Amino acid sequence: MYINPFLYQLCWGFLFPFIRFFLYFRLGKRKEDKLRLNERFGRGYKLPRPKGKLIWLHAVSLGESHAAINLVGYLKNLRPDWHFLITTNTITSAENIDKNCSKMPVIHAFQPLDHLTWVSNFLNYWKPDCALFLESDFWFNLITQTKKRQIPIIFASSQISKSSKSKWEKNPLLAKQLFSSPSLILAIDNEQKKRFEQLANIAKCNGGPKFLNFGSLKNSPLMNLPKSPYELALRNYAKETKYKIILAASTHENEEVLIANAVSKIASSEKFLLIFAPRHLNRAEEIINRLGSMPRRSKGELPSSKHRYFLSDSMGEMRCLYNVADIIVLGGSFFKSGGHNPIEPALAGKAIICGKSIFKNKSDYSLLIKTGMIHQVKSNQTLRRTLEDILKPNNRMEKALMKGQKIAQEACMRPAKAAHYIISTIEQKP
After folding, report:
1. Which of 15, 56, 332, 334 could form a disulfide with 340 if both were Cys (CB 3.0 to 4.6 A apart)?
2. Each residue of 14-39: pLDDT tens digit?
3. What is the pTM of this model?
4. Residue 1 burial by Cβ neighbours in a 10 Å radius (0-12, 13-18, 19+)
């Protein structure tokens, strides 16, 4: 469908009377904060704009908020007098920022909806000195109005799907304004860099942004934290039962059954505990209905020797699961989800299995597959054989895990490098 800037504003004008109904619907689904609904209209903020330089980071949801917090840490160390505003769209990301930024000069606000008036309200109130858009949340008014105020814009950890790129190509007037707005685009891999370059060319940007193949910023170096009571309990379980722990991490619909079937057919004298850590916690009942009763972390339960499965349906504990697992089967990759970021599990130095759908983090997957740390399963039928191969004693595997862990550690330095690029862009240094 062809849409030009005029039609885009017209659509928002048409939606104007229905927006509150939409927000109250989301409120009923617990996807909005009742006390902060006005922030969606660019008003009702409880805190004033801090004095001095204010850097605004837009981080859609939970994963992006982690990246934003990590990036803020490096920027703060280099420019301690700066203040930071992080906007998100989800309650969980807001909670994550409140939890992890209490001692940092960080303010959280919900992203205003992309109506011209509400975006203007937001920008007039906060008056940011720079805007960083993480990942792929490209709102036309939010970005172009920021540019109109001569605020430097950076796209970081940026990616765009084939289908989204195609839509922008069909709407060159929108694309021209949007993709000519940033000064710098830090793409997650070379393929994504080429897509942004092609969009900029289609948009016929004069001068245009600077493009870099930079990698994802969704990586945290904080693996050597003190072991949590939960991690210690699982380690004691493994020691006492001598069970191998296989972690089905960040799984999506149908992946739990696929992995469970493969594990049940392993030809080995070893006994296993299969831990499910679904990407979306609201799928817990669905998993139990399909695989049967199992202890649940959300109910304060732990596995015993009689259990084959354990459901880790809790927030913020994936890192300790990576640490205790013997093998990690990384979900979101066996069907069409595109694969989740492999760097954090790689930091744990464990063997990883993924499916063939890894287009979202293709570059990092490719590097880790080459080391032998990640084993890509081309078909669902080969998952069992891959698990069996990993369980066999193999000196080469140890070397592969060390190489993969080193790559992951290097990837965790990207936010530090990105911070220097961002400061140079803001301060207009060569």
Report:
1. 332
2. 998 899 899 999 999 889 999 999 99
3. 0.80
4. exposed
